[in-house]
Structure formats: structure tokens, C-alpha cells
């Protein structure tokens, strides 16, 4: 056929040309005006987001030409292709990743029956393939015009989120206002990313809040990125723009296995040798247990190239939870942060740490616990708020974990908090300590006041006697080798050799295998 000839009606060439037109229509979206409105809000389109997330030219779309079949309220006259969600798979650094992205330009990204069915299918495919699932959320909740069918669609998503939990990594990226059911699916996933100013999450919006309670508040004030990152703890990561956010999602995926049957991806350590000395640690950490320091700087000195991916960085800041590599191997790190509340455990820190332990255990990530904890935070609000059951969550998570577990005691390790922070008695495989460690039921001052209360009160010089008893208690029960002498610490190490010791321990434990008792599931504290 020459260039001047036209294909005859009904020929394959006509049908192929029609297909390409339909695909182009689906790819472009409803209209240029809708795209401009999306960009005016500082937001990218669904396909632009997918292009940033996945490797170039790797995206394979599923059900691009799907349209809804609903009638009523004018829906029958508006049946755009994709039905407001783009679904498919591609690769991130060559590894398969499944994705779905709400298209806010179509029905405001609201979920209808066909829309939900597409998401169900891609979730089922991700579970069957054993590959991570990323949701790019920018939807206004259930499609009201479709009634209960839309709500049932959310139920199917929640059921699959739960079935996939601990099987494949699930990552939710919040890129617009997500209300009601659109907020619950992310809450069931492993990680939630948010973008400042453009993304919000709430069960009921500001208008409903004002109507019911009389409280006036903006969308960002109610459920913005900083609120969920620093107050509620719903968001694990928060960023200023979509490009940075999606780049960080790619980095997170590079630290996670594709599923619970695989190990996390290992990398060659490059020019950061496993036996690199850490002499700077002697200056970073004061021997005086009452002086604060930045635990993050300690961790950066120990891990490969100083690279840490901190989870929940702005929430419960008295404990650090981070993913990093030591000698090229991924490790999950939990560490008390003396810069905030002296590193004590409280309700929020216990919840944050417990979920991180469970995540690492589910995905075969070894646990390293860096201990400098003066105890649990005392107070009426903590007790009434349920510090007992919340602290028990962390205890349960550690006791239930079967991945390699190493703990290192830097300075203080007092009371129940010492036990909870992966002590040897609850199953840590190896426990190390620095020569500055103090392991005891409580601090020497408190212990002396309890044990020698009458003797101190009845003396002519109570302060002198108190000081004498404190020194005696420290000498008898809190010297750096007390726990090692009793086998509760495997070794007291030179801080400068910390990286070398940890790398060797992680290498030895890489083939660890442990089974839990046969049971349907445990009944963890709530």
C-alpha cells in the first residue's frame, strides 16, 4: 500500500489504527484543561508519577481500556478509559514492582466498581508474583454515585492489603487529598510517604469536623504531611515535592526484598571496608551517662558510607528506627536517642519500635539494637495511657522475631527498659557492650536511696552517707564487667572496633534459622 492509499474499512490496518487512537486517548486523559488544573495544584499526572517511580520504558499497563458500567446521576454519559486509575507493573533498578496510580483528573480519583476491580487485579498479581506493590494515592474516596458498590470495592482492597501483609512490601505514596476509605488502605501498608501542602489524610474532612464538633481547622492542619509525620505517626516519610518523594521510594525499595521468601538485596561495600576503625566514637559519646549526644552520628559512623534511611524520623524522636547497610548487608537498626527525653521508652517510642521490629522480622532483615536507655518514662499520663500494654508490644515483637538479633549497650541500660531493648534474656543472639556500660535495675542514686534509706536518714551527715552508698553500689553492681562476668553480655568491646565486630557477627548469623511453635497466630498486646 502506497502512502497515498487509505486502508479499506474493516481491514486489520483500520482496527490497529483505531486501537492506537484509543490508547492515545486513554494515555492523554480526559482533557488538557483537566491536566492544567492538576498542574495548577502543584501535582503531577498519574502517568508522570509512574514514570518517575519506575525504570525508563519499563511500565506495562493492565486494563488501560477498562470503563465503568454504572448508570444514573449522569454516569452513563461519562465513561472515560482507565476509569480513573492506572495499573500495571515495571521495574525499579531492574526488579519487578507493581503499581497503581489514581488519576485525579477522572472523577477526582474517586473509587468506583470498575476502578476497584482494576486495583484488586493488580494486587492479586503482585501477591502471586511475589513483588512489591506501590500505590500512588490521589483520590477523593468512594464514588458517591455508585453507592455501596464503591464501598465494597474498598473492602476488597483492605482484604488484600491484609493478605499481603508480611508477604510482599506494600508502600503507599500520598499525593493528594485522601479521605475516608482512601486513608484506611495506606494505614494497612508497610510504609506511608506524604508530600507537604499537596497531600492530606483524614477519615472525616474539616467541614464535617466543624459541623459535628464546632472545631475550625484547615485540611493541612487536620491531616497534612507534617501532622501525620510528627503528631499522629501515620506517615513514615515526608517530602517537599513529588520528585524527591518518588526518588526516596525507589531508594527504600532497593533496601527491601521482593517478598518474605527472599533476603534483602546485598551490595558490595565498595571503598568502606568492614574492619574500618571507629576512633571518633570515643569523642562522640560522653562517658558521663547524664550528658546527651546525637545517636544518629554514632550510627552514621558505623554503617556503610554513613547512609541511613530513618523511618518515622519526626515521630517518637526518643528512639531511632532506620534501615542501613553494614558490609553491604541490609540491617534494621533500633537505637535510643539521648537527645530527646534522654532516650527513654514511652508509649509512642514503644509502638514505633515494635512495628519496625515486626517489619524487619517479616522481611528477613537482621536487627541491630543500640542501647542507651534510662528506663520507661514515668508519669500519670503514661500509666493511664497504657504504657504497660504499649511497652509489651515491643517486648512481644522482639521475643517473636526469628531474624538475626544483635544488641550493643553503649551506656545506660536500666530496669525493664533494658530487658525490652533486646537483651540476651529475651533472645538476642549476641550481646556486646562498651566499657562505658551501666546495666542495673535502676540508676545508682535511686538504688542507694531505696536500699539504704534508713541508714541515710539516720546518719549525722545524710549527703555524705548517700554519696558513699552510691559509690559502693556502682562499684559492686554496676561496673562495666558485671554483666559479662555473669554471661549476660558476650563481650565488652573497644568502641573503635564496633563496625568490625558487628560486621563479623552479622556475617556469621546470615544463615541463622529459627522456627516458632506451630500456631495459627499469636495474640499480641493491643
UniProtKB/TrEMBL annotation:
Keywords: Ligase. InterPro entries: AccD/PCCB (IPR051047), AcCoA_carboxyl_beta (IPR034733), ClpP/crotonase-like_dom_sf (IPR029045), COA_CT_C (IPR011763), COA_CT_N (IPR011762). GO terms for molecular function: propionyl-CoA carboxylase activity. Signal peptide: none annotated. Its EC number is 6.4.1.3. It holds the Pfam family Carboxyl_trans. The keyword Ligase applies. Coiled coil: none annotated. Residues 12-268 form the CoA carboxyltransferase N-terminal domain. The keyword Ligase applies. Residues 273-508 form the CoA carboxyltransferase C-terminal domain. One of its GO terms (cellular component) is acetyl-CoA carboxylase complex. It is an enzyme of class 6 (ligase). PANTHER family: PROPIONYL-COA CARBOXYLASE BETA CHAIN, PROPIONYL-COA CARBOXYLASE BETA CHAIN, MITOCHONDRIAL. This is Propionyl-CoA carboxylase beta chain. It comes from Streptomyces hundungensis. The gene is pccB_2.
